[in-house]
Description:
This protein has 209 residues and is mostly beta strands. It has helices spanning 2-25, 44-48; strands spanning 35-40, 54-62, 65-73, 86-93, 102-108, 114-120, 139-147, 150-158, 160-163, 171-174, 180-189, 192-193, 201-202. The radius of gyration is 19 Å and the shape is globular.
Amino acid sequence: MYCILTFITIAIAASLSYATHTNRTEAHECGQPDVVCHGLKKGCVASDFHTCEVLATIASHDNDTLWIDLSAFASKENLQLNFTNRWIGVGFSLSGQMPNSAVVHCFNDEHNVVQAKLTFNVPNRHFNTGWKDIDQTPLQVDSAKLENGHLQCIVRLKKHFTLKNPQKDDSVYDLVQDHHLILATGPLKDGSISRHDKAPHISEKAHKF
């Protein structure tokens, strides 16, 4: 009997330890060490990240993967977002400019289905290719939902990946190197990413993960 009780106790302790570890890795928050936050409107993270209407929270999940929480809140006083056919996105840019950036998009489509996709801003142009011809293997979607005016996608993104560009050389991304963050939002039209309709925010500081 003592051996059985001991075994059960150990099993419960191991289970609780695992649950605690799992919750900790999936509950990064602005202000914690090694967590990078980038928000709209500009300056909201520095003042109070709870006031951000669009917020990207990014942390290193492990040596090979980033953890990203991409969230937005409807009908706030500044952006007045409506999530019918709307996307939010965080981009990773070496240059601090939109072209040639890898972007994680979170959107509510015309069928009210929330999805997260990896996309690409082409070099030398302010044009996003959308996701239909992009290999989604580097992106793992943990959750994607719209509840009570809160649009949220939680994903894991490989730190090293290549995006195929049929018109030019392939684009190789290494997020261990310094990248500026780009946060933007815009309409989804006919199932495609359209140009942002709110002023995007590009981080002055470059971040490495």
